[in-house]
């Protein structure tokens, strides 16, 4: 039985005051960690405060990216050691916005995934196709390539403990989500890729989220799919009431 995981991706939203206000409203209302794993992925600046504010309330805190080196002359970057040191538990890697806007390659994503494990962070590895690839029927091939490259060099146990987020790029922030059947088919395909690259045990254990315009109104459709174990949520994770509804629907 795979435990559902809902992760909010705040992207570059909120001030510190708004972040603290959010956690004040949700803490105490979050379903138990036995029912659903809850993660908030916030801008770097808020992470330390959020970890301390929510650690007693079944909420884990994640970063939205990181560098793969422990330290060095990388102006503006944040290291996995620094994240781990303040109690961050998860990190989104290879989000399509990082790939598109900051030229993050499959090779860099792989280095970051390996590094995250070295520092005890759980990666949420994002994969997904463009609209053009989707229209040309290239989704499965593209996603297979991204998954294979991102997870290169991992042990079977590491694969079992990570999270993959299938996010069609055309569905992110557009209000136009994939159909549940369409998302289920690709998530099932990702599981097959994991089975052929690693093992049936790894494929059965790895958790796969759907992401792309998930809202309280449509989350149940995705959560009812056998190969979908949760959601990575952008816009609808920003409002406390909406975030709590997403959690309730997944618990
Ligand atoms: C995301 O940020 O990964 C995402 C899926 O955003 P949204 O839910 O707003 O589409």
Automatic annotation (TrEMBL):
Gene3D superfamilies to which the protein is assigned, alphabetical: Aldolase class I (3.20.20.70)
Subcellular location: Cytoplasm
Highest taxon of source: Bacteria
SUPFAM superfamilies: Triosephosphate isomerase (TIM)
Keywords: Cytoplasm, Gluconeogenesis, Glycolysis, Isomerase, Phosphoprotein
Reactions it catalyzes: D-glyceraldehyde 3-phosphate = dihydroxyacetone phosphate
Modification Phosphoserine occurs at: 213
Keyword Zinc recorded: no
Signal peptide (from-to): none
GO biological process: gluconeogenesis; glyceraldehyde-3-phosphate biosynthetic process; glycerol catabolic process; glycolytic process
EC number: 5.3.1.1
Binding-site list for substrate: 9-11, 173, 213, 234-235
Pfam families recorded: TIM (PF00121)
Gene Ontology cellular-component terms listed: cytosol
Family label: Belongs to the triosephosphate isomerase family.
Protein name: Triosephosphate isomerase
The organism of origin for this protein: Siminovitchia acidinfaciens
Organism taxonomic ancestry: Bacteria, Bacillati, Bacillota, Bacilli, Bacillales
């Amino acid at each position: 039985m795979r435990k559902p995981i809902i992760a909010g991706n705040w992207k570059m939203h909120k001030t510190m005051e708004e972040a603290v206000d959010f956690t004040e409203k949700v803490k105490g209302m979050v379903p138990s960690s036995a029912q659903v794993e809850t993660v908030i992925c916030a801008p770097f600046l808020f992470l330390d405060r959020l970890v301390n504010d929510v650690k007693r309330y079944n909420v884990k805190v994640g970063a939205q990216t990181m560098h793969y080196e422990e330290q060095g002359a990388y102006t503006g970057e944040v290291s996995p050691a620094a994240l781990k040191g303040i109690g961050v538990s998860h990190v989104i890697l290879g989000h399509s916005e990082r790939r598109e806007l900051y030229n993050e390659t499959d090779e860099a994503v792989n280095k970051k995934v390996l590094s995250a494990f070295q520092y005890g962070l759980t990666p949420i590895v994002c994969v997904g196709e463009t609209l053009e690839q989707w229209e040309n029927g290239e989704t499965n091939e593209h996603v297979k390539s991204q998954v294979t490259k991102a997870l290169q060099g991992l042990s079977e146990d590491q694969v079992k403990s990570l999270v993959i987020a299938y996010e069609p790029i055309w569905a992110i922030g557009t209000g136009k989500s994939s159909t549940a059947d369409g998302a289920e088919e690709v998530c099932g395909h990702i599981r097959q890729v994991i089975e052929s690259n690693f093992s049936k045990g790894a494929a059965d254990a790895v958790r796969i989220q759907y992401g792309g315009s998930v809202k309280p109104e449509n989350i149940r459709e995705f959560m009812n799919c056998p190969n979908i174990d949760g959601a990575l949520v952008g816009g609808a994770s920003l409002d406390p009431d909406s975030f709590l509804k997403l959690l309730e629907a997944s618990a």
